[in-house]
Amino acid sequence: MSKVSTELSARARNEVSRVLQALASSNQSQVAEQLGIDPSTLSRMKNDKKSNGLTELENCLVLLDVLGFKTVLKKYRMISEEKLNALFVMSKAWMESKQTIDDLFQDDIEDFGIDIELGYKEKA
Question: Domain range holding 40?
Answer without folding.
Answer: 10-66
